[in-house]
């Protein structure tokens, strides 16, 4: 199909969440990524080009032609080089990188058995930026513009109700795995590890509708909805893994320390006070911030790294977290992809030190994490990058749908409390998962 770089502006009162959900559910775009950041939603639809990386092969597609080949080295560097090989012009790339990318950074490739998808980026044929005052369309043709205008301003439809989901069964032996990790920590093998558990849903999910309902009931730092290749996902990210802005400022937002939220003013306040005074949670957060600071220092100009908003409390849906912001000025000999590699996977989704905790995750977490605890990305040609952490999400692929959540395990951890924490986090998603309509 033809495309253009022309800007088309639609000035109209718009419900951005409903609008991007309609675009995703319309069937007009075979692949798409929706990415929300403060003040705007971006809908990237239909791949003009894409980059797919798995454990065995790199596939680069542009304008209908695909080249394939083996690859070696570090996944982030491979993705950077592949993007640079394409005639992008001003176009942005959207997509995801999975947790298993870290195996190559931390010498854990032996844990990767079989073909595992590591990353999937797409360069959209049409990009729509939506806010409450209207939308801007870049790319596409006149028929796209007419269809998008109709979808953006269509009458709103009622949101369907969620399907019941049981999150309270320990089907993966989570408590036993936490106990095993506590024993290893007490032996001095590492300080902290984030172990997760997978909850199979047992029914087909309407992912766009689940995104809309979930976003109406969550307060994320960022949110996303995607269908790329065989994977669908929708999520409500509590933090940035990494961002690099137009001035080269690198930012990460480690969250560690969790209590339930949304149970009433008195109970929420009591939980907050408990969170702010719990030695286990304070230690967990402090060591996470220290690690994030060291990672930014590894790619930043000397003396520019600093912490702000230290150990504040941020509310994220059904939970509240201790949070801090760490920043530094990217050094001239490092790229935005280097910054993402240095900060991936997020310390709050892996552990401390990362090499030992990542080895533990591969040993104790069971099945590959894939997108869970990876990141959804927006990458601009000028070097801007934003990567948001994938935690509170619903996933669907290969006829299966699931949720996943984890908790930070340290020497003072209780298996029952960490299991309870996963339930609190799953509470940000599970009550809003909508089953697909039966045909």
From TrEMBL:
Any one Pfam family match given in the protein's UniProt record, by short name: Chorismate_bind
Enzyme Commission (EC) number: 4.2.99.21
Cofactor(s) needed: Mg(2+)
Name of the featured protein: Salicylate synthase
Organism: Antrihabitans spumae
Cited InterPro entries: ADC_synthase (IPR005801), Anth_synth_I-like (IPR019999), Chorismate_C (IPR015890), Salicylate_synthase (IPR019996)
Molecular-function annotations in GO: isochorismate pyruvate lyase activity
Keywords: Lyase, Magnesium, Metal-binding
Chorismate-utilising enzyme C-terminal domain residues: 172-425
């Amino acid at each position: 199909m033809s495309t253009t770089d022309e800007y088309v502006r639609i000035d109209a009162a718009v419900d951005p969440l409903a609008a991007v959900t309609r675009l995703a559910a319309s069937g007009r775009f075979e692949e798409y990524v929706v990415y929300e950041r403060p003040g705007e939603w971006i809908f990237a639809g239909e791949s003009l080009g894409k980059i797919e990386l798995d454990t065995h092969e790199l596939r680069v597609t542009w304008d209908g032609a695909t080249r394939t080949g083996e690859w070696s080295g570090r996944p982030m560097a491979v993705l950077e080089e592949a993007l640079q090989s394409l005639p992008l012009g001003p176009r942005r790339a959207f997509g995801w990188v999975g947790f298993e990318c870290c195996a190559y950074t931390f010498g854990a490739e032996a844990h990767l058995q079989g073909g595992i998808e590591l990353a999937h980026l797409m360069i959209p044929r049409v990009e729509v930026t939506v806010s409450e005052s209207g939308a801007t369309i870049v790319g596409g043709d006149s028929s796209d513009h007419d269809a998008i205008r109709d979808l953006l301003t269509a009458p709103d439809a009622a949101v369907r109700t969620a399907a019941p989901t049981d999150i309270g069964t320990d089907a993966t032996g989570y408590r036993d795995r936490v106990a095993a990790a506590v024993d290893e920590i007490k032996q001095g093998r590492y300080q902290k590890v984030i172990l997760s558990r997978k909850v199979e849903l047992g029914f087909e999910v309407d992912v766009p509708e689940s995104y809309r309902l979930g976003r109406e009931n969550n307060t994320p730092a960022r949110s996303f909805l995607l269908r790329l290749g065989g994977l669908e996902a929708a999520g409500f990210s509590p933090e940035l893994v990494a961002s690099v802005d137009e001035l080269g400022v690198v930012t990460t937002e480690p969250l560690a320390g969790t209590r339930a939220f949304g149970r009433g003013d008195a109970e929420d306040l009591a939980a907050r006070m408990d969170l702010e005074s719990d030695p286990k949670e304070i230690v967990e957060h402090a060591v996470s911030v220290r690690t994030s600071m060291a990672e930014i220092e590894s790619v930043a100009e000397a003396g520019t790294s600093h912490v702000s908003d230290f150990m504040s409390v941020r509310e994220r849906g059904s939970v509240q977290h201790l949070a801090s912001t760490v920043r530094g000025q990217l050094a001239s000999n490092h790229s935005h992809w280097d910054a993402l590699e240095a900060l991936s996977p997020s310390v709050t989704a892996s552990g401390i030190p990362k090499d030992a905790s990542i080895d533990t995750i591969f040993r104790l977490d069971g099945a590959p994490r894939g997108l869970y605890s990876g990141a959804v990305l927006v990458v601009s040609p000028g070097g801007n990058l934003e990567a948001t952490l994938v935690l509170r999400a619903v996933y669907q692929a290969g006829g299966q749908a699931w949720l996943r959540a984890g908790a930070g395990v340290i020497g003072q951890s209780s298996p029952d409390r960490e299991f309870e924490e996963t339930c609190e986090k799953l509470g940000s998603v599970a009550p809003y998962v909508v089953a697909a309509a039966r045909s």
